[in-house]
Structures are given as structure tokens and as C-alpha cells.
């Protein structure tokens, strides 16, 4: 490899850090993670306390505004969010352009990006008031958009939001309710899904959040930025892992087959990985996985579901955590390991899992985007590269090339 920069007399220094394993690209006051200790704080509050005691809307307010809301602030925020839950009627036509078997994430990328074509009064990124409206619109409309993607896939009519319900209750009704029939919300299901939303709300500079910030750094409007985040989240190494984890657990099928899959995960020549295991930052138990492991048992017990997948998951966790390979590489269950089991028990098809992640993560994305837009020192994100291609050479006309 030649160092072409030297040829041009360039002696400036830069850091070569593939995958940004140790490079901070921004300052942030939103989320703190200590991967070695398994700590996750939002604005200083431990995730376990938020998951146990607060609601998703409270956490959304906290991420956006820096403090937990008092009662008045909470009620005002709830009012603002519920005011924006409907989507433009013409968006229903947009959905009809997709194939019925389209992946919900494909629909979400398109529909969320298209919001900028409908809400021109919240795309001026230099106007703080318009930025705030965009934040509220995105948080409010994501459940409607995700529920419509589901309804479209099963061929049922879209349901308008019911703003008398909680954020999560309304989403459950729009997804599983049918017109002219009352939909009874199971409080254990509502609580578990709300917890899942809280646990997925933000996770500092992960791939999709960095994508949102990078897109936003060029001055793109917030709807376009969130659409970029959704695209990045879709991958199986990121948000797509919950779908992949449940599929893997189903493929394993029963605890006796675990050694075979663990052996495959350890085999360097086999691309197979234990989905829902390992994390770029957590080199200890992901605190979110702990909360969800407990919630999974509660939901399945309440719904009277005896799913062998949960036994398989528990046994896989036990085997992996006592295996030298996983101990040495510090691979622990991550947030995706148990979430799929809960979502499946509630009735969501696996194809919806990542869409639900996108719904929840929108609050983190938009809070991070807002923080960046408020930073007067903010620059366009522009990573450098280590060039390893040809040195300079002369052009050869087409006729003379062999
Ligand atoms: N199963 C088996 N081996 C694994 C796993 C796994 N799930 N994860 C990592 N490893 C091994 C790698 O093969 C590698 O081994 P090596 O050092 O011998 O080459 C080593 O552990 C380090 O792995 P990297 O891929 O380099 O670690 P990185 O930090 O880049 O990746 C990631 C983290 C992508 C999450 C990885 O652990 C993975 O692919 N896990 C499965 C997918 C998953 O669950 N993703 C969800 C992440 S959480 C989220 O996005 C919400």
C-alpha cells in the first residue's frame, strides 16, 4: 500500500477508526452508557427505574426536554402528542401503492420520508418552533404509521387513532382492533409493550442515531432524517436483530438442539451468529435484556401461553453464559434477545418487530437531532478515509486498453 498523501506533500494527521469503535463524533447530554458495568442512564435516570416506574410518553418528554415533566407539563405534552396522531388522509393512498406483502420497514422508510411532502409548516430547520412541531408530529404519528403498515399487510381497514387511550393502548387498538367492535386492552400487555418502547427509546450514538445526525448535519428536514434512521435500523446487525433472534430460537426449536447452534456460532468458518447476543458497547449484561427477560415470563403467564421458545431462550442464555467462547468475547444477551418473544405473544408477526423498534427509537432520534440543531458549533458530518487504491497514473485511450 502506497501512502499517496505523502506524494502530494500532505502530512496532516487523522485517526483511522473503522466502525468508529473509539471515536466520539459529538457531545451529548441525553444518554450515558457504561458498557463494562452494564449501565444505561437517560438524562441521569437509570433505565431500570424508568422502565419500572414511568411511561413511554414521560420518557419521550425527558429525552426531548432534559427533565421529567411535572403533572401540568405531562398533561400539556400528552395533549400536544394526541393532537398530532392522525396522518394526512392522502397518505392512505400512498400505502395502497405498496404490495400487500411489502416489509413494514420498506413502507415505513417511504411513508416517514413522505411526511415532509405533507407538513410544510414543520420542515424549516432554522425555526425552533417548526422543529418542535416536527418532533411532536413524529412521536405522535409513528404508532399510526406502524399500525397502518400492519393493517395494510393483513388487508384490514385502517383504524383512526382513539386519543382517549394511552399512547401504547391507542397503538394496540389501531393494530389489533377492528371497526365496529370494541377493543379491550389487556393492562399487562399494554404495560409490557410500553416497557419495550421505553427500553428502545434511545441508545446514544448507535448506527441509526448516527445516521440521523449525519443526515441532519447537512440540513435535511427532520422527516427525511428519521427516514434515514429507519433505513439504517432495518439491518439484522441492528434493529433487525429482534426478528432474527426469534427466528433463530424457533429454528433451534427445543433446548436439546442448543449445543449444535452454540457450536456453529463458535465456528469461524460458519457465518452463523447467535442473534440477540453481543453488543458493540455492552461487554456485560445489557440492562434492557434483564428487564425484558422478566417481562417475557409475566406476559406469557398472563396470556396463558406456554411457548417452548421461552424455555429455549432461557437455556441458550444459561449455556452461552457458561461457555468459554462467550465469556472470553464478553457476549451477553442484548435487548433483542427477549423482546421478540413478548411481541410474538402479544400477536405481532416477526416482520413488525423492527417497525416497533423504529416507532420507539424515533423519540431518541428526534431528541438527538434537536440537540444537534441547537448546537451552534454543529458542522456537517464528514468522515475521512484511508485511501488504499492506485497511485496517480496516466489515462489510456479506450482503443489502446488490452
Ligand atoms: N455470536 C457469535 N459470535 C459473536 C457474536 C454472536 N452473536 N457477536 C460477536 N461475536 C464474535 C465475533 O465473531 C468476533 O469474533 P472474533 O474476535 O474471533 O473475530 C467477536 O465476537 C467480536 O465481534 P464483532 O462483530 O467484531 O463485534 P462488534 O462490536 O462489531 O459487533 C454486534 C456487535 C454487531 C452486535 C455483534 O455482536 C452481532 O452481530 N450480534 C448479533 C446481532 C445482534 O444481536 N444485534 C443486535 C445488537 S443490539 C441493537 O442493535 C439494538
Could you describe the 3D structure shown?
The mean pLDDT is 94. This protein has a three-stranded antiparallel β-sheet. It is mainly α and 402 residues long. It has 18 helices and three strands. The protein is globular and about 75 Å long. The protein starts with a helix and ends in a 28-residue tail after the last helix. Strand 1 and strand 2 form a beta hairpin. It has helices spanning 4-7, 47-53, 56-65, 71-83, 91-96, 104-118, 128-154, 167-176, 187-199, 207-217, 222-233, 241-252, 258-266, 287-303, 308-321, 324-328, 336-346, 353-374; strands at residues 31-34, 39-42, 45-46. Bound molecules: acetyl coenzyme *A. Residues 19, 237-238, 241, 265, 273-280, 329, 331, 334-336 line the site of acetyl coenzyme *A.
Topology as a string of helices (H) and strands (E): HEEEHHHHHHHHHHHHHHHHH
List of distinct ligands in this structure: acetyl coenzyme *A
Number of helices: 18
Terminus-to-terminus distance:
25 Å
Beta content: under 5%
Rough shape?
globular
Task: Detail the poorly predicted runs.
Answer: none
Largest sheet: 3 strands, antiparallel
Largest sheet, order of strands side by side?
Answer: 1-2-3
By secondary-structure content and strand pairing, the structural class works out as mainly alpha
Number of strands: 3
**Overall mean pLDDT:** 94
Gyration radius, to the nearest Å?
23 Å
Helix percentage:
40-55%
Characteristic key phrases:
402 residues, mainly alpha, three-stranded antiparallel sheet, 3 strands, globular, binds acetyl coenzyme *A
Amino acid at each position: 500500500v502506497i501512502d499517496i498523501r505523502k506524494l502530494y506533500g500532505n502530512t496532516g494527521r487523522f485517526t483511522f477508526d473503522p466502525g468508529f469503535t473509539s471515536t466520539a463524533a459529538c457531545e451529548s447530554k441525553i444518554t450515558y452508557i457504561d458498557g463494562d458495568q452494564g449501565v444505561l442512564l437517560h438524562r441521569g435516570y437509570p433505565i431500570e427505574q424508568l422502565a419500572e416506574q414511568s411511561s413511554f410518553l414521560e420518557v419521550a418528554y425527558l429525552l426531548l426536554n432534559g427533565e421529567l415533566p411535572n403533572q401540568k407539563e405531562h398533561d400539556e405534552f400528552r395533549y400536544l402528542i394526541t393532537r398530532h396522531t392522525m396522518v394526512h388522509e392522502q397518505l392512505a393512498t400512498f400505502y395502497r401503492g405498496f404490495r400487500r406483502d411489502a416489509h413494514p420497514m420498506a413502507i415505513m422508510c417511504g411513508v416517514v420520508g413522505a411526511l415532509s411532502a405533507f407538513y410544510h409548516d414543520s420542515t424549516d430547520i432554522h425555526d425552533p418552533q417548526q422543529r418542535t412541531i416536527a418532533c411532536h408530529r413524529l412521536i405522535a404519528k409513528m404508532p399510526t404509521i406502524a399500525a397502518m403498515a400492519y393493517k395494510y399487510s393483513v388487508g384490514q381497514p385502517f383504524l383512526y387513532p382513539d386519543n382517549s387511550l394511552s399512547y401504547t393502548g391507542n397503538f394496540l387498538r389501531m393494530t389489533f382492533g377492528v371497526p365496529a367492535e370494541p377493543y379491550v386492552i389487556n393492562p399487562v400487555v399494554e404495560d409490557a409493550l410500553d416497557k419495550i418502547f421505553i427500553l428502545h427509546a434511545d441508545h446514544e450514538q448507535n448506527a441509526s442515531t448516527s445516521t440521523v445526525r449525519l443526515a441532519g448535519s447537512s440540513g435535511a428536514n427532520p422527516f427525511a432524517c428519521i427516514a434515514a434512521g429507519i433505513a439504517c435500523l432495518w439491518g439484522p446487525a441492528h434493529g433487525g436483530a429482534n426478528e432474527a433472534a426469534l427466528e433463530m430460537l424457533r429454528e433451534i426449536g427445543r433446548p436439546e438442539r442448543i449445543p449444535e447452534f452454540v457450536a456453529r456460532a463458535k465456528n469461524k468458518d460458519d457465518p452463523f451468529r447467535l442473534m440477540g447476543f453481543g453488543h458493540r458497547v455492552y461487554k456485560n449484561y445489557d440492562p434492557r435484556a434483564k428487564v425484558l427477560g422478566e417481562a417475557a415470563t409475566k406476559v406469557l403467564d398472563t396470556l396463558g401461553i406456554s411457548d417452548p421458545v421461552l424455555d429455549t431462550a432461557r437455556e441458550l442464555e444459561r449455556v452461552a453464559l457458561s461457555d468459554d467462547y462467550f465469556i472470553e468475547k464478553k457476549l451477553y444477551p442484548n435487548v433483542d434477545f427477549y423482546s421478540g418473544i413478548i411481541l410474538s405473544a402479544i400477536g405481532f408477526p416477526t416482520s413488525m418487530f423492527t417497525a416497533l423498534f423504529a416507532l420507539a427509537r424515533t423519540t431518541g432520534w428526534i431528541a438527538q437531532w434537536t440537540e444537534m440543531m441547537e448546537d451552534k458549533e454543529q458542522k456537517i458530518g464528514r468522515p475521512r478515509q484511508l485511501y488504499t487504491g492506485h497511485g496517480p497514473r496516466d489515462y489510456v485511450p479506450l482503443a489502446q486498453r488490452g
